[in-house]
Amino acid sequence: MNFVLSRTLKDPLAAMPALIELLKQAGPGLHCVTVCAITIFHEKDVTHARFAVPTRLKDLEAMAEQIAPPLSAAMLTTWCEAVVIMRSLEHPESGRTETIQGWHVRDGAWAGLSAQQISNGYAVDQDEKRLPPEPGVRYVPAFQVAPQSQDRAHAPM
User: Which of its termini does the chain have fewer beta carbons within 10 Å around, N or C?
Assistant: First the structure.
């Protein structure tokens, strides 16, 4: 985790139960989960991991550890928030449609983004110009992720 303030987190892996639940709810397929977290101090961390579901829980946990710290900061503190984007292929071998959905995480709460919000935020380039639709990509509203009850660190130090 790139955050200078990551040392203030009691548990940098606190997001693990939420990530595992997210992947269980996503169902079978190949999923790429990207977490972009930003603090009120303008520090940013972007990380991602690929998951094949179903797989052994131990393997899911090992992959989720890669993206848990920045998400944990958004779940445990009031000085960080995150966006979680999940790209999914239900049957990767068949080349079927890819599905993209996302969530905004702040103060421990997961708010699902609409298909339009994902499309508006995802399909732009670095100059914020609209990109043409990707063939075979569907933007869908996010399913509900149950919030995890955690103690929050309301001050950065």
Answer: C
